[in-house]
Design goal:
By secondary structure, this protein is of the alpha+beta class. Helix content is 32%, strand content 26%. The two termini are 48 Å apart.
């Protein structure tokens, strides 16, 4: 797979292929200032693995564990499921920190940006490295909020495995589906952790069912909870038929006992566990022929005789094949169930080697990340995650290569492996290995520096921020000359604003947040145009005749067709100029100046006077398209958001009435224990500031998740109102 081309080893000469995820510059700057041969130990950090005091003991063995003992994993989930809390426990039990961080107190290791600590949410992924029972685990905590989807995507493609954390009282939630689909796309083996088993309303059965139904995954129940809600006290290990009980008096969860289930002391629980184990064996045998042969041959009479290791090996195979997902449970907040989760990460998730990485690459300077601290390392073997510094022109999603030929060879191989049908003609495109899919921004607003003199500083800050986060787009409004920020949501833009202030020392002013509309046309229209200009002693003359017509592509990329007489002998440079002209014209629709989607452009005839520059060809085509678009019947498309609101019964009717006023359509209302889950669609323009409204309506008891569904045609009345407000007419 393309995304696997990221394995590298250090040499001082070559830098072949390495994927780039740009880190927050300020994070990097501050840690580089502190960079020493040893890692400075900050808040409650234990010695880093293998580092005793200030000595680097056998750094090589610390840095380069055998590849089979490496696990590169991500933690992913819906917002607030408890990823950061779980990560904090993991770091504590692995000895990486000496005290438990708490998101609610704002002192976690991985949420180290000021905004993360203040808001108690994860915005940027953080990487930490720790050891667990002889394994090296590189772990990335990813954000759950939909505004930061790109951040999740950029992490997923460099991971070998993932832990999906769920709120056991809510099961699969909207954003879980999104990240699950992303993990499917990158073929990442997963383990599910049903967190918050201590919470009122937690239901193991319900959460497992929702994994089966909503994620269409096959859950393998490796554990059963001992009690739910306030009664939750531990878990049963189904594979080993053992009971794990946490000492209720231990305040950090380190103290727990693991005892075999015995007929004498736990007859009921033993029976239940045996049934669960038998069901698990049957389920795995169904998915794995090798295991089926073993079970049916030697152990068909009595599954109890099947050794736990044999079952674990088979579970590992189906997990790696992604035909099923192991499910564990616990309560990160109450310090229960995290150690067995770590065991499961080492036992069931793949080492980098098992993900078919074949590339051994090189780079000049490497740093090993420990959240906001880094240690410079001399070398690194394949399968590890590290940072490199000093790259001035790269952006998140780029691939670094030592030479064009090595990148082309890698791209060719990856294309064959990925079974890609379409051949990429464009060399630059082929060089781009596995770029992340950048979602289209749905909001925009103007941003002003404190003074004109500070505009270059603002431009610089925005340039740096965009390199880290390509889902942030910045453009210049040609009419007003203002800088415009385009982002994924209100929170996204707010965080960018805040970061410019904190990290670049610039107090900026944001204009009102506006929805990013799109436009389309309803009928086919032809137009012709001629551009005749003499510059110096050179005459530039182009005549073009073309047609714009509606097509259903749900994309802002116009479909381009050429009449046979045009495509014949059309030089590549002229074709590129035509296409540039078409694309630039379609970026600014005639109604609101928004991008035009769902259009095809057919170029019927083209006459180019010898010596005409490509810029003039682009300009003529662009003008001709604008002309055609203006003549067509036009339609505004607005972003329609998929909304999921979780609300208690008492507030259901209030929330529904409010949604009706917001032009919302309700798809279904489900019951989940005491809660109602409303799913439906609402235009983005109607849902701005919804968190405050919902909080007020439901006294803070409801939660919601929003995700872009598609762009929908506005009805004629709403469109007239919108255009009237913008001072425009149809
Ligand atoms: N009852 C209960 N609450 C928990 C548990 N784990 C986390 N929480 C709480 O849930 C809230 C969210 O926890 P986080 O760890 O920040 O969740 P997250 O998934 O990292 O959230 P984002 O980073 O914003 O995506 C916090 O108030 C935690 O204290 C748990 O096991 N039980």
């Amino acid at each position: 797979m393309l995304s696997n081309l990221r394995k590298f080893v250090v040499s001082h000469k070559k830098i072949p292929i390495l994927h780039v995820n740009n880190m927050c510059c300020s994070k990097m700057r501050s840690s580089l200032q502190r960079l020493k041969p040893h890692v400075p130990l900050g808040r409650n950090y234990s010695s880093l693995p293998g580092l005793i005091g200030n000595d680097i003991k056998s750094l090589h063995s610390v840095i380069n564990p055998p590849i089979t003992k490496i696990r590169n994993i991500g933690i992913m989930a819906h917002i607030d499921a408890g990823k950061t809390t779980t990560t904090e426990r993991i770091l504590y039990y692995s000895g990486y920190t000496r005290s438990l961080g708490d998101v609610d107190d704002g002192d976690t290791v991985t949420d180290f940006m000021a905004q993360e600590r203040e808001r108690g949410i994860t915005i940027q992924s953080a990487a930490v490295t720790f050891d667990w029972k002889g394994y090296r685990v590189n772990l990335i905590d990813t954000p759950g909020h939909v505004d930061f989807t790109l951040e999740v995507e950029r992490c997923l493609r460099v991971l070998d495995g993932a832990v999906a954390v769920f709120d056991a009282s809510a099961g699969v939630e909207a954003q879980t589906l999104t990240v699950w689909r992303q993990a499917d796309k990158h073929k990442i083996p997963r383990i599910c952790f049903l967190n918050k088993m201590d919470k009122t309303g937690a239901s193991f059965k319900y959460a497992v069912e929702s994994i089966r139904e909503k994620l269409k995954a096959k859950p393998l129940l490796l554990q059963l909870p001992l009690g739910e809600g306030k009664a939750f006290k531990g878990v049963v290990d189904v594979v080993n038929k053992e009971k794990l009980l946490w000492n209720p008096n231990s305040d950090d969860g380190k103290d727990f006992v693991r005892n075999p289930l015995l007929e004498m002391s736990d007859p009921e629980l033993l029976k239940e566990t045996t049934e669960a184990r038998n069901a698990l064996i049957e389920q795995v045998a169904d998915l794995d022929d090798e295991f089926a042969d073993l079970v049916l041959g030697e152990f068909s009479e009595n599954f109890d005789l099947l050794p736990a290791e044999k079952l674990q090996t088979a579970i590992r195979r189906v997990t790696l094949a992604q035909t099923a997902v192991p499910v564990l449970c616990g309560s990160a907040l109450k310090n229960k169930g995290v150690q067995p989760l770590l065991d499961a990460v080492t036992v069931y998730l793949p080492s980098p080697e098992e993900r078919n990485y074949e590339f051994l690459e090189r780079i000049s300077r490497l740093l090993l990340p420990f959240a906001d601290q880094h240690i410079e390392i001399p070398s690194l073997t394949a399968g590890n995650i590290a940072l490199t510094v000093g790259l001035k022109h790269t952006a998140t999603g780029d691939t670094i290569a030592s030479s064009k030929s090595s990148a082309l060879a890698a791209a060719r191989r990856a294309e064959t492996e990925g079974g890609k049908k379409h051949r990429r003609n464009n060399e630059a495109e082929r060089l781009l290995l596995a770029g992340v899919e950048i979602p289209e921004p749905v909001f925009f607003c103007t941003i002003e520096p404190p003074s004109v003199a500070k505009q270059p500083d603002l431009d610089y800050a925005l340039k740096c921020l965009q390199r880290e986060d390509p889902s942030l787009k910045v453009k210049l409004d040609a009419d007003s000359g203002q800088t415009v920020l385009c982002g994924m949501g209100e929170l996204h833009i707010e965080i960018i604003h805040d970061r410019i202030k904190r990290e670049y020392g610039l107090e900026t002013y944001l204009g009102p947040l506006q929805v990013a509309y799109r436009e389309t046309i309803l009928n086919a229209v032809r137009a012709t145009d001629t551009l005749d200009r003499t510059l110096g002693d050179k005459r530039h003359l182009v005549t073009v005749e073309l047609e714009v017509k509606p097509v259903e592509t749900a994309s802002v990329m116009p479909v381009i067709e050429y009449a046979g007489s045009v495509s014949e002998d059309l030089p590549t440079a002229s074709q590129e100029a035509i296409e540039n002209g078409i694309h630039s014209a379609c970026l600014q629709g005639p109604l609101l100046g928004s991008p035009v989607q769902d259009v095809a452009v057919a170029v019927h005839s083209l006459i180019i006077h010898p010596g005409t520059s490509t810029t003039m060809i682009s300009a003529c085509v662009s003008r001709c398209i604008q002309k055609a678009l203006k003549k067509a019947d036009k339609q505004v498309l607005e972003p329609l958001m998929k909304l999921e609101v979780t609300v208690t019964r008492d507030y259901l009717s209030l929330v529904l009435a409010d949604l009706a006023q917001r032009r919302g359509t309700i798809q279904e209302i489900q019951t989940r224990q005491e809660n109602k889950i409303i799913t439906g669609f609402v235009p983005l323009a109607e849902i701005m500031g919804y968190s405050t409204v919902l909080r007020t309506l439901t006294s803070g008891s409801a939660t919601f998740a929003l995700e872009l569904s598609n762009y929908e045609a506005m009805n004629p009345q709403d469109q007239t109102v919108l255009l009237g407000r913008s001072g425009l007419t149809q």
